[in-house]
Amino acid sequence: MDAERARAFLLTLPHAAETMQWGANLVFWAGDKAIGGKMFCLINLDADGHAPISFAAGPERYAELLEREGFTPAPYLARAHWVAAASWSVLRPAEWQAELRAAHALIVAKLPRRTRDVLALPARQREDIIRRRRKQLSLRAKKS
Known about the structure:
Elements: H1 3-10, E1 16-21, E2 25-30, E3 38-44, E4 53-56, H2 59-66, E5 71-73, E6 82-85, H3 93-108, H4 113-119, H5 123-143
Antiparallel strand pairs: 1-2, 2-3, 3-4, 4-6, 5-6
């Protein structure tokens, strides 16, 4: 697995969205950020010595993964039970897919009801709401 393959897989998950934030980090959201989605995975595209990928693990899986070589608590997100992998080689591709699918499911289950309600709408309605919300957020940012 590598960043490109992980990105391709992550974007196949239901209602997954991505943003580029905090430098060269791809952030993957369960539900669009504009409607209250939550992060479930972060891929660091810089070769800066930091972990190439961090993801939500949940309390039980967090403890299990930290016992494995190559996993550490994710910087800034460890309190939310996120782990960081030292390299892509710490898991096989099928294991990466299982962990990332589990991270997505874990965060989807924690989404606020209003966000889940928007995600349940037909695609066209959902996209219209997201587009309007992004516009509102953009206008609000320009006023600040």
